[in-house]
Amino acid sequence: MEGTDMAGLIAYGAHVPYHRLARADVAAALGTAGGRGTRAVAGYDEDTTSMAVEAARGALGQGGLRARVGQLFLATATPAYLDKTNATAVHAALGLDEHVLAVDMAGSVRSGLGALVAAARSPVPTLAVLSDLRTGLPGGAEEIAGGDAAAAFVFGGHRNGAPVLAELLAHDTVSDEILDRWRLPGAPASRVWEERFAEQIYVSVAEKALTAALDHAGLERGAIDHFVVAGLHARACAAVRRGSGVRPETVTADLTGTVGNPGTAQPGLLLADVLDRARPGELIALVVLGDGAGVLLLRTTDALPEHRAARPVAAQIAAGGPPMPYAAYLSWRGLLDREPPRRPDPEPPYAPPAHRRAGWKYGFVAARCEKCGTRQLPPDRVCASCHAVDSMTDEPMDAVRGTVATFTVDRLAYTPSPPMLVVVVDYDGGGRFRCQLTDATEADAVIGARVEMTFRRTVTASGIHNYFWKARPVRSGDDKETVG
């Protein structure tokens, strides 16, 4: 447990996928009881690594904050790789300094709490990214109640030259070995014990952690302005919200009706949503349940209104697409085995060229000729305009928007979400590139449409994920330019 000498929150961001699954459609397909609302669904080309990149881009922007980050922690219960570090792909996509430590906190939902606490206690500015993709067996509670999302937070302090958006007043954690949820390696879904068993255990440990944190900060429960409770044990979360003695009007919504519960990422997503709305000087109490409990107390500052995330959580929820077919969801998740394309299997990415071109492949870094100013995508040693050799300057392009110059609707090329949409993009400030258009329908592929870049998993071949960049439409709620 730490107190007021801890660092504060200096940036945050979140990512809610575009796609939605209507619970009523699941019930209709399986003949089960009806469900209400929707859940967020990661696209066929998204995973916890790509979602982590999107959330972190929202937190860091394009300015000097990226240069200040000294550590990167990626927390997820569903890592894209085992053995191999997933955080290094996030590190490469963000273009962080090579000396920045990038490590995973993976395997359990509680790792999200661990990443937040570790980042807050770090003596150097630290980026904590919480990302999760929740999948259960068809018709099960995990599928219905789950969701996909990511959130990112940078903890630092005044000494790091960035304004503090929320001071971390205190935190406390209680650890307890509770066999209420488990999943063996390779299993498709978690198993859960009968909920009544753990409900009162979680209520007890949450009470201990909340009391200790408030005592250390010298505060009463009545001082709490936003009471946030996160965890996969729905009954326990509801009981904590009801029985913690806080003012009822301070209890925040858990977003399960529109996004679902994104597990590891839920504490981050709910905290980001509160920060989008909180006023200066308000006290936020974040309670996280899972194998014990953890509490973080944050006090917002006068700097928050001017430095909120570029994409509010509510705007991302509102910008979600129409409900997708349930069969498509099952196919994307590998729960419906569809006939593969009648053509040779795709080639996997190869390690040597991927490493040599890491700046382009992961960071989408172009080159600008120092002689004539021509921007080139992909970068090259020889300028395509004036033919100058080795006179190039690196130019990051991940935050540069563009306009569709022309497009193709390809009904022959294989894609898990047909048809394949390919666009040629003219970027603001120069440069042209051809790439796929994602999170879109045929109606979005029009000449003159505004697009932005997003980090995605293009294909998995021979057990290797190939990450690169795609374009996506700029929608309502995405019109605020990202700043660093």
UniProtKB/TrEMBL annotation:
Entry's transmembrane regions: none
InterPro entries assigned: ChsH2_C, ChsH2_Znr, NA-bd_OB-fold, Thiolase-like
Residues in ChsH2 C-terminal OB-fold domain copies: 401-456
Official protein name in the record: OB-fold domain-containing protein
Pfam families associated with the record: OB_ChsH2_C, zf-ChsH2
PANTHER family according to UniProt: 3-OXOACYL-[ACYL-CARRIER-PROTEIN] SYNTHASE 3, BETA-KETOACYL-[ACYL-CARRIER-PROTEIN] SYNTHASE III
Domain called ChsH2 rubredoxin-like zinc ribbon: residue spans: 364-388
